[in-house]
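Q&A log
Question type: sequence-to-structure
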Amino acid sequence: MNKKGFTLVELLAVIVILAIIMGLALFSMNGAFSTSKEKILEERITEITTAAINYAQSNGLKITWESCMIDGESYDRCKTFKVKELQDLNLIETEEEDGKIYNPVSNTEMTNDVVTVYRKNNRLQAVMSCMASSGQTC
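Response status: OK
Response body:
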């Protein structure tokens, strides 16, 4: 018998194997995308908090400091900034066409989020609240 090609069973077997491999690849890629978005968010939060600390260090005498509670501890020297304020001072840049900063994980706007700069152990530190209304820490 002279074979000139593959049988239908052989072709189906190859297609099934390729589908399984593609399914596994897509499953692992989805995890990689979500991890990369979380890393981008962490970098963005670090950029924003660093900008707030640098501004507070440079303009400490001009800032009206207040008292606040962070994680159950009371601090005398606190200042709260909206992300939009820091952006208006050209301390934070964005690549977005509309000029807004977005959270890559939730695709929500971050311009109303709040950064609180406070003095702890004679050093300025900052904590960011994801939403100004909810007060949740990022």
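Response note: The first strand starts at residue 66 and ends at 70.
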